[in-house]
């Protein structure tokens, strides 16, 4: 009835019009006191100041400290814009901002239209009354984040701990009191730049009756194998209700479509579609990297109101199922539960790392940069990244690229390493945040799990911050925030993926114990984080055996090339004040040296800068070898239990993927994208099939680990061939087929059905450090009937003797399947490098550099006159990556490639290439 009365009025206003959007991105004026500079939106005041030449590079030396005043000031963003009479004639005109950073008051033509207090909320303000035809002005007046948290702190009845970060962070206090990127106040790997600004899109939207605000989707499998698609459409309407219209859903490139008439009765209303997709649509499943295709479908939603005005939204979705399996590992329930993910019914070992924001200034994080990082992850066989809770809910491009590359995401909510307030305004803001973010992220097939926070459960239970004296109080806050608030909303909005209260957690056991476990990080349940800086990093026997390890790491320095733009000449010394300042991890630089001396002799070049460069190299060796040791340890334990019920480890996510700035940290990729040695090692230790030698006392124990046992596929010629999944999605390093490594046993060339076992031959060669000719080779036939098992075990001294090697320290092992180039291969030393005898300085030479058929990819020959450990190639000034790096060269010649990420010619690249190996750092 109401509609009938209103319709003529609306028609008058709206005839012939479509929904109208005016972007306010672009040039604004950014000002504070006597400073006024142009600034780009999306952006922050720091990049506005850099662009106008008011400040230098914030990452240079100690500029984070130097520029502390910037974050402490209040900044305002202002601009003007035009509004036509047509726009103003719409019944509703709103200002939509997808991200204010953070505390702000918004005025349009001097009228306050709204306020913001949460960087992770999309704000929508009604601004129709404030607008005029012609020129309008908008001001977003920010309050300094550091000033705001002081104000909050003084109003709280008790301290929300910790009240400040450790002094080594050179950071700001009180990040936990504001809903903002927690690490923007500093972290143990990053500087303090408490930004202010409009960090995401801002626009005016004028509409007649209703607009689509969000579209979410959920896919599930029906019993008959067909797919069910649930689509939720969140509409925002004008105040005069109800509103009638038609919603239509189309799934491209299928012909699936569904539509219905809708009657919207609330200002924020939603409509659901439940669509059973017919078999004829031939849906192709979405698979993680390494397991199959990443098929994606475009889901369009069209809304047409009763006036004929249209509005639409598109999301890209994928069809996959996800289960987090937490069954008892044994009839003896005290041995705990499994903790692994099953995607489309297949158990998948999570291989990957952790993701932090790629820059302190988020506006600098372009699609190209994100793609480069995620592609670098995919290229080294990672299938998972954890979006860590101290950063941001990532930008849409991040999730889109993860969907495209098959990188599964473990998504934390943005709470990390602290207690948090629970006063009503805070909780209310978190509710808006969680609702908005879950709806924004829900359709991405890459996101496989949501988690309430980073490490806060453990911090509470173990009293990291002095909460122990008031445990009950802080526990109540914990439950109120993560269980009553975050979890409740997730349960209402998204049950299509598992939710964990904290990362890490004991999973369902944590829940059974009332969400705050007595002993978090129990290896019998859930996941753990594991850091050990003082034990030998190359010895897996010091490591725990968890169900999953979602953080483990060591530090290393980035390259001198990476540091030079932000260092000056006095800083290029390992023990310089700047290095001390730059490493926020307490005692980090000392720890790295303490690690190094256990494994290699320390570089001793008299030249300070060269010595620093050599020490950087040594820290990267430790880092790479350490993470190889840890990652292979977790992979080896994937399908065994020890007598205490530990094992069935089904995930290894090392800390961390990429740096936020140039500093010594845990990252395997430097700021700017250059791969550290660890990242090259990840290509080997995360490969679908690895040979993983280890020592068990005096015994050499060689494991083979496979992501999955090979399957047989029928070929056109009606023979069968053993191949490794995925055939459909080959990537560098994974193209690996039994035929290229030797003659498969006859029984495997013709068979029916997938095999449950796999035969092969492992070759183990013993070399002495001073010769390219192997002393002895063992060939070991093996049968794999699980995905990780020991295939060879022998007393190492007996092997040493039978190879006529003088002693362990003079020899090393090379292990392969017959083809060192195409198949998996690895090396293993029988002593540390500081104890190794017989190593001599190698003369390494690069020759015959030539362009390959792949654009920007070059091939070259590397020769050596001696065995060379940790061969380290660099292309100074040319971004890109080598096909392998940091390897042990045990053959006199190798062919390698360099894939440049930018245009470069043979001459420039030839001049840019450098190479060194371990013995070069000793003078
Ligand atoms: C864990 C992480 C981060 C931290 C890292 C290294 O605690 O969750 O907070 O940067 O360790 O210390």
TrEMBL record:
Q: Name one GO biological process term.
A: glycoprotein catabolic process
A single GO CC term for this protein reads: lysosome
| EC number, UniProt record | 3.2.1.25
InterPro entries annotated for this entry?
A: Beta-gal/glucu_dom_sf (IPR036156), Beta-mannosidase-like_N2 (IPR054593), Beta-mannosidase_GH2 (IPR050887), Beta-mannosidase_Ig (IPR041625), Galactose-bd-like_sf (IPR008979), GH (IPR017853), Ig-like_fold (IPR013783), Ig-like_GH2 (IPR006102)
Q: Where is the Beta-mannosidase-like galactose-binding domain?
A: 32-200
As for family, the record states:
Belongs to the glycosyl hydrolase 2 family.
| Protein known as | beta-mannosidase
> From what organism does this protein derive?
Dreissena polymorpha (Zebra mussel)
Q: What is the lineage of its organism?
A: Eukaryota, Metazoa, Spiralia, Lophotrochozoa, Mollusca
């Amino acid at each position: 009835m109401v509609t009938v009365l209103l319709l003529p009025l609306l028609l008058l206003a709206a005839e012939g019009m479509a929904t109208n959007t005016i972007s306010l991105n672009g040039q604004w004026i950014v000002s504070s006191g006597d400073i006024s500079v142009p600034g780009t939106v999306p952006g922050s005041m720091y990049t506005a100041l850099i662009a106008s030449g008011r400040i230098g590079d914030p990452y240079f030396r100690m500029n984070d400290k130097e520029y502390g005043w910037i974050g402490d000031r209040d900044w305002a963003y202002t601009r003007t814009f035009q509004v036509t009479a047509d726009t103003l004639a719409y019944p509703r005109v709103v200002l939509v901002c997808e991200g204010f950073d953070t505390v702000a008051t918004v005025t349009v033509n001097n009228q306050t239209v709204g306020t913001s207090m949460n960087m992770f909320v999309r704000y929508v303000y009604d601004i129709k009354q404030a607008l005029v035809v012609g020129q309008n002005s908008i001001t977003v007046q920010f309050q300094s984040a550091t000033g705001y948290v002081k104000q909050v702190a003084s109003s709280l009845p008790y301290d929300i701990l910790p009240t400040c970060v450790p002094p080594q962070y050179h950071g700001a206090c009180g990040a936990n009191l504001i809903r903002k990127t927690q690490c923007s106040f500093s972290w143990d790997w990053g500087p303090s730049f408490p930004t202010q600004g409009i960090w995401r899109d801002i626009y005016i939207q004028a509409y007649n009756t209703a607009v689509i605000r969000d579209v979410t989707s959920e896919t599930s499998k029906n019993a008959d194998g067909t797919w069910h698609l649930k689509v939720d459409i969140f509409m925002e309407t004008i105040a005069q209700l109800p509103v009638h219209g038609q919603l239509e859903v189309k799934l491209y490139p299928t012909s699936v479509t569904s539509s219905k008439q809708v009657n919207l009765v609330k200002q924020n209303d939603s409509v659901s579609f439940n669509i059973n997709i017919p078999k004829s649509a031939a849906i192709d499943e979405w698979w993680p990297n390494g397991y199959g295709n990443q098929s994606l479908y475009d889901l369009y939603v069209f809304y047409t109101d009763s006036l004929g005005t249209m509005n639409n939204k598109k999301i890209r979705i994928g069809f996959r199922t996800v289960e987090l399996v937490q069954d008892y590992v044994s009839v003896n329930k005290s041995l705990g539960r499994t903790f692994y993910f099953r995607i489309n019914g297949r158990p998948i070992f999570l291989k990957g790392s952790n993701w932090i924001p790629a820059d302190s200034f988020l506006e600098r994080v372009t699609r190209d940069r994100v793609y480069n990082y995620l592609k670098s992850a995919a290229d080294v066989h990672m299938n998972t990244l954890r979006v860590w809770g101290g950063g941001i809910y990532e930008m849409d491009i991040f999730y889109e690229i993860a969907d495209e590359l098959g990188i599964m995401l473990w998504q934390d909510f943005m709470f990390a390493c602290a207690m948090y307030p629970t006063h009503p305004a805070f909780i209310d803001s978190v509710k808006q945040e969680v609702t908005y973010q879950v709806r924004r992220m829900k359709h991405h097939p890459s996101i496989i799990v949501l988690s309430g926070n980073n490490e806060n459960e453990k911090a509470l239970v173990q009293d990291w911050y002095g909460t122990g004296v008031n445990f009950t109080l802080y526990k109540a806050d914990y439950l109120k925030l993560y269980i009553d608030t975050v979890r409740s909303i997730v349960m209402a909005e998204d049950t299509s993926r598992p939710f964990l209260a904290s990362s890490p957690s004991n999973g369902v056991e944590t829940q059974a114990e009332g969400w705050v476990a007595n002993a978090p990080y129990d290896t019998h349940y859930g996941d753990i984080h594991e850091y050990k800086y003082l034990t030998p990093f190359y010895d897996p026997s010091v490591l725990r055996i968890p169900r999953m390890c979602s953080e483990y790491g060591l530090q290393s320095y980035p390259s001198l090339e990476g540091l030079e733009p932000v260092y000056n000449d006095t800083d290029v010394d390992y023990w310089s004040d700047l290095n001390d300042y730059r490493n926020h991890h307490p005692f980090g630089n000392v720890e790295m040296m303490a690690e190094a001396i256990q494994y290699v002799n320390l570089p001793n070049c008299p030249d300070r800068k060269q010595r620093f460069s050599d020490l950087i190299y040594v820290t990267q060796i430790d880092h790479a070898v350490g993470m190889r040791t840890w990652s292979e340890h977790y992979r080896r334990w994937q399908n065994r239990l020890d007598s205490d019920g530990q094992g069935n480890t089904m995930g290894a996510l090392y800390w961390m993927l990429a740096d936020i700035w140039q500093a010594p940290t845990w990252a395997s990729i430097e700021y700017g994208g250059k791969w550290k040695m660890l990242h090259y090692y990840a290509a080997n230790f995360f490969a679908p099939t690895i040979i993983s030698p280890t020592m068990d006392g005096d015994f050499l124990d060689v494991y083979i680990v496979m992501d999955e046992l090979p399957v047989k596929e029928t070929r056109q010629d009606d023979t069968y061939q053993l191949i490794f999944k995925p055939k459909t999605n080959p990537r560098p390093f994974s193209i690996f087929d039994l035929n290229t490594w030797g003659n498969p046993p006859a029984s495997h060339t013709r068979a029916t059905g997938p095999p449950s076992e796999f035969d092969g031959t492992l070759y183990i060669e013993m070399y002495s450090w001073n010769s390219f000719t192997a002393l002895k080779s063992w060939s070991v036939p093996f049968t794999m009937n699980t995905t990780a098992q020991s295939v060879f075990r022998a007393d190492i001294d007996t092997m040493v003797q039978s190879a006529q090697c003088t002693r362990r320290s003079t020899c090393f092992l090379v292990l392969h399947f017959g083809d060192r180039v195409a198949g998996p291969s690895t090396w293993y030393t029988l002593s540390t490098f500081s104890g190794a005898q017989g190593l001599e300085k190698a003369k390494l030479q690069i020759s015959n550099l030539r362009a390959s058929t792949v654009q920007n990819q070059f091939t070259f020959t590397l020769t050596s006159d001696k065995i060379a450990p940790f061969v380290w190639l660099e292309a100074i000034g040319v971004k890109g990556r080598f096909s392998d790096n940091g390897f042990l060269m045990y053959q006199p010649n190798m062919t390698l490639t360099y894939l440049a990420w930018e245009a470069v010619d043979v001459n420039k690249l030839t001049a840019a290439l450098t190479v060194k190996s371990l013995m070069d750092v000793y003078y």
